[in-house]
Amino acid sequence: MNPVPPAATRVPPRSAHHHASHRHLLARDAVAEPAGVDAIIVPTARPTAYLRTAVALAAHHECTLVALCSRRSSADGAAALAEREGVDVLALDIAEVPPDLVPDFATTRMLRGGRFARRTDTSAKRNLALLLAAVAGWERIVYLDDDVAVPRPEDLNDAAGLLDRHAGVGLSVGGYPDNSVVCHAYRDAGGEQDTFIGTGALAVGRESFTSFFPDIYNEDWFFLLHDTGLSPSAVTGLAVQQPYDPYRETMRARTEELGDCLAEGLFGLLDAGEPLTGAGVAYWRRFLARRRRFIDDVIAMVHAAGLEEGQKRRMVAALKAARGRNQLIEPELCEEYLAAWRADREVWRAHVEATRARYRGQSAQKLLADAGLLHGYHPCR
Predict the structure, then answer these.
(1) Which residue stretches of the chain are H helix?
(2) Which parts of this chain are annotated as the region Disordered (predicted)?
(3) For the chain, how many structural domains are there in total?
(4) Which one of 148, 169, 241, 313 is separated from 178 by 20 to 30 angstroms, measured CA to CA?
(5) 120 belongs to a structural domain
(6) What element of type H or E holds 235?
């Protein structure tokens, strides 16, 4: 009998039904002349104190802070915090934004009111920021989550400088990894799981303002896609994600599953060098079955891992919730969603271009005034 190798030399367990990394799709170690940042965009739902990092970055870069607020955040609190630091700020309570300022997308309508509906306003906030950026004439903006820090502020300049050749440039996420619940469990059970770039810290240039964020988990991956593949994207620098508990309640895993399946399925095609047009009903039928086998693998890995029993129970409960939701996803829904997403891309492009043309030669303040939102703009310089 072969002896069991010491723990330090054991090969980590892995699943044959999962692509653990898509990093090879990104340009790495790309170099460009650093560029300025016009605005830092923070969709926030946490108390005002969580904006301190973004305010400090906006002060460093002498750029506008756009705080799009809901739930426990408030526009008044965000404005007061920014003004104390001498930062120009546009702070809006998202509930006050006229609903027709951003289109009602087909991808949103087809999920609304059902089990796959996403009950957050993050995508709406990010799309609103794109529209404002287009009208304001900004060239380079940075999305930043309110629980993400950037230890070296100049990393934003490096990312902005790469936007002449890339649709999006993300900072590499350190600290707590940015993954779905299922992929967190895979890593925590011993699997080798990578991260991708996302709007936790993502620089976006003017040419990409006509892409949009669908209202689904992994909306930032969809933002970086075009009809057949991934737009040129890069990674540089470092952002640090604050820790959180992905297994606190099972609803998180349920609400992520459709978006995680769609995004992982599409990026699986890209990993294989195939265009997104290969994602038909037959492909999704195979992929959804593969995804369920992956989740089963992770459940087995969790049971075998040397984790605290209470932690195991919470992880398994979350994984079973994801698997249960997966079983409700029909291959036809995936194909229909992608068709709606492609149509929405054209709707958004037309909307941005029409709005940009309507306000050409005027400032973004005119758009804000027309929408009854000018009270949210607080210039300090």
Answers:
(1) 52-61, 75-84, 106-109, 122-136, 154-161, 181-188, 219-223, 251-271, 281-304, 309-326, 331-358, 364-370
(2) 1-23
(3) 1
(4) 313
(5) yes
(6) strand 233-241
Does residue 305 fall inside a structural domain? no
Name residue, tokens 């104390």.
Answer: 84
Query: pLDDT tens digits for 44-86?
Result: 999 999 999 999 999 999 999 999 999 999 999 999 999 999 9
The answer to whether 188 and 307 have CB atoms below 8 angstroms apart is yes
How far apart CA 94 and CA 92 sit, in angstroms, is 6
Per the listing, tokens 């400032």 go with 363
Q: Which of 303, 265, 307, 302 is nearest to 284 (CA)?
A: 265
The pTM for the full model equals 0.95
Question: What average pLDDT does this structure show over 301-313?
Answer: 96
* pLDDT the model gives residue 223: 98
Q: Give the dihedral sign, CA 230/231/235/241.
A: negative
- CATH code, 178: 3.90.550.10
Residue 269 neighbours by CB distance under 10 Å: 18
Q: What confidence score (pLDDT) does residue 12 get?
A: 54
Measure the CA–CA gap between 58 and 255, rounded to whole angstroms: 33
SS3 category, 165: coil
Contact (CB, 8 A) for 81 and 51:
yes
Domain that holds residue 103: 24-245+344-363
What is the predicted pLDDT for the residue at 198? 97
DSSP character at residue 1: -
